[in-house]
Amino acid sequence: MTTAYRLSIAQKSMFFAVLSAIFLAAMDQTVVATALPTIARDLHGLAHLPWVITAYLLSSTVSLPIYGKIGDLIGRKVVLSFAVAFFLVGSIFSGLAWNLDSLVLFRALQGLGGGGILVTAIASISDFLPLQQRGKYQGLVGAAFGLATLIGPFLGGFVVQHFGWRWIFYLNIPFGIFCLGVIQWAFPKREKKDLALDWMGAASLFFGLTALVFLVELGRHDAWLWPLLLVFLVSLWGIFIGSPRHPEPILPLGFFRHKTFSASVIVSFFVGTAMLGSISFLPTYYQAVRGYTPTQSGLEMLYLLVGMLLTSTISGRWISKHQKFRIFPIFGTLLTAIALWVLSHVAQHTPFWQIDIALIFLGIGLGSTMQVMVLSAQWALPHRHLGVATSTVSLFRSMGGTLGVAAFGAVFTHFVGQDLGKAEPEQIVLALHWDFGAAAALTLLAFFFAWNLEELDTLMAQRQARGEGTES
Fold this sequence. Notes:
Blueprint: H1 9-30, H2 36-43, H3 50-74, H4 76-95, H5 100-128, H6 134-162, H7 167-170, H8 172-186, H9 199-218, H10 222-242, H11 259-279, H12 282-289, H13 294-301, H14 303-322, H15 327-343, H16 352-367, H17 370-380, H18 386-416, H19 425-450, H20 456-465
Helix pairs in contact: 1-5, 1-6, 1-8, 3-4, 3-5, 3-9, 3-18, 4-5, 4-8, 5-18, 6-13, 6-14, 6-17, 9-10, 9-18, 11-17, 11-18, 11-19, 12-13, 12-19, 14-16, 15-16, 15-19, 17-18, 18-19
């Protein structure tokens, strides 16, 4: 039986700083989704519209391993402050964008900060909380992440309808300044170490992941296929041959020999692909097929929030109390796959209560899975590799989401065409059938891999056998 644990004033201050940073970055991953149809009309472009989301996800994803490793080496206060400042600069320029190409570019700039915020803030929790208590507070982080992710579409719709789409970026400025102040006040200073960064590994991951996303989006054009494939293959050489020779590799490949760590990464990848790749286009269904306003479509997306908030909080408390977590990702991935399969049958006149119930169950499934995968990866590795463990799981989840948005966006454009205003409702519905069906199949794969996860007592025994002990 675990004894009651209470945070000190210093720990409460740091946890509040972490939640503020996560809320800021997570909300921006989806705040643009509801505004996409308005942005397309205002900036006169549909062909590159998915890249408004993909650019942010791509740049935030490729920067994750670098932020995670630097945070391990020099401390997370400086890294987190830098990431928030970079995010604010990208937000300001995104609001000033004059065409769709410039908006995509500035969203990429914004994502370079957003990726650092998420991975550094999540890793920071394990710097000041005992291992046995992380489940409870990671559950609260999951709830905050879910709240921000799902408030994003509603807030985006409301702001677009009443103030214009540029204000969805300008609103980040006061939030970001507040977040910077809390970080500076709450986080302790730490002695700097030598920054022995694996530059070859960092560059290989950066260019390799970028090439992979562009292959998904542009590889069907012969002119792009071979150059992108060459960049990707060269990056693989850097990751598998060059980087492991470094004393502090950016992505230690030996970690993947650990059963639970590998399962955490794989499940995160498939769940990320299914979640962001499918629901990013659901607001378009509400607006273009059912005639909803941006605000109304954002409100419909809040049904996801009900299940996600509930299970994120309950699962975290249950894990801290019972020190077991495996049942949650197994149950969560199965329920997510079922909910996505139901959504793949949505028609032009499907009753809204059926869609809403499916979204609630989808939220329950996602809330049972996403943050638990971060915990299981952290528990599987020594504490000194905390940032790498967190960033690797976040990397694969974000990479899955980035590839999902790019691939499902290509499917959507294939069925709908280049002009959303001229698309027939039947075309949009057909595109969503394919997107949600593929997402359900990918999540079913995650369900099978989730059975490879090991319980906390097994992971702790493995640590002791390796002579690592457990951090307090």
